[in-house]
Amino acid sequence: MDQIANPAPGFQRNPGKVIAIEPYRGTVVVRAGETVIASSTRAKLLSEAPYPQVLYIPFADIDFGQLGKTELSTHCPYKGDASYWSVLPAAEAGKDAMWAYERPFDEMTEIRDHGAFYRNKVTTEATPD
């Protein structure tokens, strides 16, 4: 097996921490103005107290032609290093509006190849089934 173990240091230090990931049962649409950036029936809902829940959308359901990767990177001791993209149709308001953990820690592999959007930078509509 070629996989190298990549455990999250946050969980090693704080084994009681809970981050839940479950399928979102419904449709998620992300827009910048009238432009649809993403549309998915396969999103995942991540819950991590005390933070608001976050919807992660599969890369396959995101229009990367409307995004531009930026230099910003942040680190989470539970998820890994996040990369960022700007939503081009949103201009300055869309700067660094989407993030993704392209190589998450082992405990968070469910969000690999998924992107999340800041709700204050784009319009996110989540319609449950």
Task: Please characterize this protein's 3D structure.
By secondary structure, this protein is mostly beta strands. The protein has one domain (9-128): Domain of unknown function (DUF427) (Metal Binding Protein, Guanine Nucleotide Exchange Factor, Chain A), CATH 2.170.150. The chain is built from one helix and ten strands, in the order αββββββββββ. It has one helix spanning 9-13, and strands spanning 20-23, 26-32, 35-40, 44-47, 54-58, 67-76, 80-87, 98-100, 114-117, 123-128. It has a seven-stranded antiparallel sheet, with no helix packed on it. Strands 3-2-10 form a three-stranded antiparallel sheet, with no helix packed on it. A hairpin with a 2-residue loop joins strand 2 (26-32) and strand 3. The radius of gyration is 15 Å and the shape is globular.
Short description:
This protein is mainly β and 129 residues long.
CATH class equals: Mainly Beta
The fourth-level CATH homologous superfamily is Domain of unknown function (DUF427)
The CATH topology assignment is: Metal Binding Protein, Guanine Nucleotide Exchange Factor, Chain A
Instruction: Name the helix and strand elements from N-terminus to C-terminus, one letter apiece.
Output: HEEEEEEEEEE
How many distinct helices? Answer: 1
Kindly provide the radius of gyration, computed on alpha-carbon positions and rounded to a whole number of angstroms: 15 Å
Q: What does the largest sheet look like? A: 7 strands, antiparallel
- The average pLDDT value, as a whole number, equals 95
The appropriate CATH architecture is: Beta Complex
Helix content range: under 10%
Strand content bin: 35-45%
SS content category: mainly beta
Strands of the largest sheet, in order across it? 1-4-5-9-8-7-6
Q: Count the strands? A: 10
